[in-house]
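User: For my dataset I need records formatted as: sequence, then structure tokens, nothing else. Please produce one.
Assistant:
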Amino acid sequence: MGKPGGGRAEISPRLLSQFHAINYTIPSEQNMNKIFYTIALTKFQSFFEEVKSQCEPLAQATINIFNQMIENFLPTPAKSHYVFNMRDISKVFQGMYKAEKDYYESKE
């Protein structure tokens, strides 16, 4: 929410008192790597060893791409949708959770 003006209405203090302000800082790259490595390892623990060994490089590569996107795709007035957060990384891992052991025998 922004300050009132430019089409934004003032929110009454009575309504505002019903909400909580929550703020969090983006975790460090090391913490993000640990979070997503653990998620991948949990999913792939029943897979073949060759597939399981790719959990850490996969988490690190996803975080590296995320960091490059933040640096290279800056929001502009024409492209204001270029706002990235950890939800974008989690979407990658949600897609990986659809993988089934029967279809993956090697890391390729």
